Amino acid sequence: MELTEWDVEEINRFCNGNKNAGYIVETKTGLTGRTYHNEKPVDGKTIVYTEKGKLLCIPETLKLIGFID
To answer: Of the candidates 68, 27, 29, which has an alpha carbon nearest to the alpha carbon of residue 45?
Structure first.
């Protein structure tokens, strides 16, 4: 089985303990992704990690789906 970039990102985040804390969100285009509390906004936008890669999203356009401890 070959790991995708998404898999590697998830494994790296999982291994870093509380650095994984964040939100599960849905973007305005319907993609599901996650954010991390320890990451600062970039030009006022939130970094969202999806299976399509990293996206920069306007925070007001994100729908909160769940929480990650």
So the answer is: 27
